[in-house]
């Protein structure tokens, strides 16, 4: 199980390598994503709180990256954080998510990205429920649910 200490280590020393990599030009991403998906995932945008389709949905399945379909989170680790965005306590695999220190907007946060294609997902915070204490706060538009 990942902890905040692991996350801090990854922001300083790098995330474990992904199982595979997908790289496309901005033009290629624009041709396969909607304008809103492109803005959130490739330009590091943020959707309005409580506006995303996955915010209050708890259907069984896996949440995959909108851009490359890599499994990122499982519904078994999703929880209601009342933050306005889907929240998870852990990624589906240790190397599914990449971590970057984010100093934008006058604060220090940890940005999370798909480790396969570098799609912006959201941020992770150390204020989640036990046992990990982590809250992966993810833009709904960055995810697609593969229901079981």
Features:
single chain; globular; 17% helix; 148 residues; 9 strands; three-stranded antiparallel sheet; 27% strand
What topology emerges from the helices and strands here?
Elements: H1 4-13, H2 26-32, H3 35-42, E1 61-65, E2 71-74, E3 78-79, E4 87-88, E5 97-102, E6 109-114, E7 120-125, E8 135-138, E9 143-147
Antiparallel strand pairs: 1-2, 1-9, 3-4, 4-8, 5-6, 6-7, 7-8
Please tell me about this protein's structure:
This protein has one domain (4-147): Metal Binding Protein, Guanine Nucleotide Exchange Factor, Chain A (Beta Complex). Helix content is 17%, strand content 27%. It has helices at 4-13, 26-32, 35-42, and strands at residues 61-65, 71-74, 78-79, 87-88, 97-102, 109-114, 120-125, 135-138, 143-147. Strands 3-4-8-7-6-5 form a 6-stranded antiparallel beta sheet. Strands 2-1-9 form a 3-stranded antiparallel beta sheet, with no helix packed on it.
Number of structural units classed as domains? 1
The CATH superfamily bears the name Peptide methionine sulfoxide reductase
Quickly give the CATH architecture.
Beta Complex
Structural class: alpha+beta
Find the CATH topology: Metal Binding Protein, Guanine Nucleotide Exchange Factor, Chain A
Strand order of the largest sheet: 3-4-8-7-6-5
Largest sheet: 6 strands, antiparallel
Sheet-strand content, in percent, reads 25-35%
Q: Whole-number radius of gyration?
A: 14 Å
The count of β-strands is 9
Helix content: 10-25%
What is the arithmetic mean of pLDDT? 95
Low-confidence runs (pLDDT<50, min 5 residues)? none
């Amino acid at each position: 199980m990942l902890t905040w200490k692991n996350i801090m280590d990854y922001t300083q020393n790098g995330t474990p390598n992904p199982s595979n990599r997908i790289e496309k030009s901005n033009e290629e991403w624009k041709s396969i994503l909607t304008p809103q998906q492109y803005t959130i995932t490739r330009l590091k945008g943020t959707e309005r709180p409580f506006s995303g389709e996955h915010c209050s949905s708890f259907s069984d399945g896996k949440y995959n990256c909108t851009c490359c379909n890599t499994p990122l989170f499982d519904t078994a680790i999703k929880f209601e954080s009342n933050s306005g965005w889907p929240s998870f306590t852990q990624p589906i695999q240790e190397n599914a998510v990449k971590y970057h220190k984010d100093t934008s907007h006058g604060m220090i946060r940890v940005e999370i990205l798909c480790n396969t294609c570098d799609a912006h997902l959201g941020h992770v915070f150390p204020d989640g429920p036990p046992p990990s204490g982590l809250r992966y706060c993810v833009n709904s538009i960055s995810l697609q649910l593969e229901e079981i």
